[in-house]
Amino acid sequence: xxxxxxxxxxDFHLATGDxxxxxxxxxxxxxxxxxxxxRFGSQDFISYIMTTRLLNHWLSFPKISLKxxxxxxxxxxxxTEMKLLNDKKQFEKALAIxxxxxxxxxxxxxxxxxxxxxxxxxxxxDIQRGKIIHNLIASETKNDIYVSSTLIHMYVHCGDMASxxxxxxSTKTKTPSMYGIMMKGYIKNKQxxxxxxxxxxxxNPNDVNMILLFNACxxxxxxxxxxxxxxxxxxxxxxxxxxxxxxxSLLDALMKCGDVAxxxxxxxxxxxxxxxxxxxxxxxxxxxxxxxxxxxxxxxxxNPNDVNMILLFNACxxxxxxxxxxxxxxxxxxxxxxxxxxxxxxxSLLDALMKCGDVAxxxxxxxxxxxxxxxxxxxxxxxxxxxxxxxxxxxxxxxxxNPNDANVTILFNACxxxxxxxxxxxxxxxxxxxxxxxxxxxxxxxSLLDALMKCGDAAxxxxxxxxxxxxxxxxxxxxxxxxxxxxxxxxVINxxxxxxNPNDVNMILLFNACxxxxxxxxxxxxxxxxxxxxxxxxxxxxxxxSLLDALMKCGDVAxxxxxxxxxxxxxxxxxxxxxxxxxxxxxxxxxESVGSQLxxxx
Length: 602
Fold this sequence. Notes:
This is Pentatricopeptide repeat-containing protein. The protein has about 600 residues and is mainly α.
């Protein structure tokens, strides 16, 4: 074994190693250091002392915790005690016991005890302590699948996916559960593609791996994800279909990837349907804008749970009809009182009542509720905005003690609709008071920019926009719309040219700006841009309308007519754009042609 020799530097300053060795002797840490040196080599002695320093920072009684105690507990009892505390979610106490009885003997602790302390670290998100333990036990546990799995879980739970992946890669014997932990972590971190890549490495995936694959594909919502779901569902053992969780996640993936027919076929041939399966189907119908099907399926459920109720209310909120409102009221009277303890249910019920136009009923329910949560306030505020009761939205916001980013976003939306000096003052005041973390929410930033623009403070909006590091397309849209509303079309065009991959809304706003300018340069830009537009954008009827309007106002009636008559999907606003242009140029002989097209189509 190497001997550690510490020497004084020529200028008589202590070398780093000397400082730590003297400190170790003073605090009685040498037992632990000697154990560490025997196991890992003297070259890591300084790292050990630095590690011990960090550990001491957490301990209430540092000298006691790092000395060998005369009454050291048996390692089996230590692991058992920590497990009992972990099971009771008393993770801090579990770590305290480890600090008192385990840290100085960590090299001889059972793997059972190690897994328990790592579980506590994971739940406390104490990644620094977890890393220290990992470093101390690395050589002994690299081939132990249970400790390796727990370490991976600890890193994933603490959000350190890079360390978790590195550990998985270095593990010789990889188990399906290890892959499952990693896949779940990637899904949680919105990295579904990485979860799918990991799945492809598993030789014999189990049903949990399959569930996680379907969850990842549901997150992606792409054609490729749908193809993978279908392919995998054909290859899995039939026995897996007896797992209702697997079926539920499969239905959810099919629905979220847009294959409603396949999901329906699978659902109706399934013999044992459970409530989460009904929920996956109802959620899929709502997401695919098929609210009537969601309601029909709800009526097939004998004893719906609170989640099924929530989805019913969401479907009714989508319909916004008198019949939907009647169903909401009828159902709300029949649901068990215990369901109202679910804040999501109350929120969805308030949202449905508001969207179906029954503000009074929503208010009565809201104010009679004892346990109001922020999402309930949000549903009420959004309802007030949708029903053009903007002052009520602002008054309700002022009742909230600690509003979240969603509440603030809705407040800005209300102020944007008011367009008054008082509204602008409130926007500025609120924007100064909100936590900085809220500015990482692009929805909030977009609504703030929109409010500033609509209230006439373009300079403030510009300052905020250009100081923002992470700009998203809706933020560009809010600025462009503001410039159009404030009659600054040149600024719209300049900002559009800064966008790498504009979406259909950005295109619409560009055409609106060009329509305002009515110049040859504007017409040339409209023509150039219209040739570059992806064909899929034309499915947005507002884009065709704004393009026709721009062509007409810039004087190219012939091109507008050609585009109009070649378009398969005409909407009323498209006819309106054409007729408005005809009226603008006093070419009334064209009215009959457009009018006849209108009557043929409708």
